[in-house]
Write a structure and sequence with these properties.
The protein is mainly α. Helix content is 60%, strand content 7%.
């Protein structure tokens, strides 16, 4: 008979590019969401509604940032901060073109450090898009229903920080 601890250590996988990627404890250092999958003993395959290339980058971010924290946590806090800052800077430069997708993945996987790293870039990228391109990204449909309009206004007023809006864009037209 297997013990609870043996059951708990069954591998958890995430499907990326049609292949299974094993979720490791180190992923949970950056993402409490992934950490709960790992530590919760879910012996299953998870499929997130995130583009495979973006999911792979988000998992890579979690793994590498988690390793930096693991290697340097007991050392000088300034060294740890500098190592994380260097990694973040390099990661941001290499993946800036995927800012919108990475912010979406960070939001779904609860990766605050990734979200903070790319949020402003994503806002700037969205600001440069046409209404049709924005519609294609977010698939927002307004059918004239007043309740939907109120819901959309509520989300715009509460979920999007004021600093993300340019002065001339504070009025949202539906």
């Amino acid at each position: 008979m297997t013990s609870y601890d043996d059951e708990k250590k069954k591998p958890t996988y995430i499907k990326v590019h049609g292949k299974l990627k094993k979720l490791e404890e180190i992923h949970g250092v950056e993402s409490p969401h992934l950490g709960s999958f790992y530590s919760g003993g879910y012996a299953d395959v998870f499929c997130f509604k995130i583009e495979d290339s973006i999911l792979e980058k988000a998992l890579d971010f979690c793994q590498k940032r988690g390793l930096i924290k693991k290697q340097h946590h007991a050392l000088d806090p300034n060294l740890l901060r500098d190592k994380l800052k260097d990694f973040d800077s390099t990661f941001r430069q290499n993946h800036l073109h995927d800012a919108i997708g990475l912010v979406e993945a960070a939001s779904k996987l609860d990766i605050n450090s990734l979200y903070d790293l790319f949020f402003e870039d994503a806002v700037l990228m969205i600001d440069q898009k046409t209404p049709q391109e924005i519609d294609d990204i977010f698939i927002v449909r307004y059918n004239g229903d007043d309740e939907v309009r109120r819901d959309m206004e509520f989300v715009m007023e509460t979920a999007v920080p004021r600093w993300a809006w340019k002065e001339d864009r504070r009025t949202v037209v539906y």
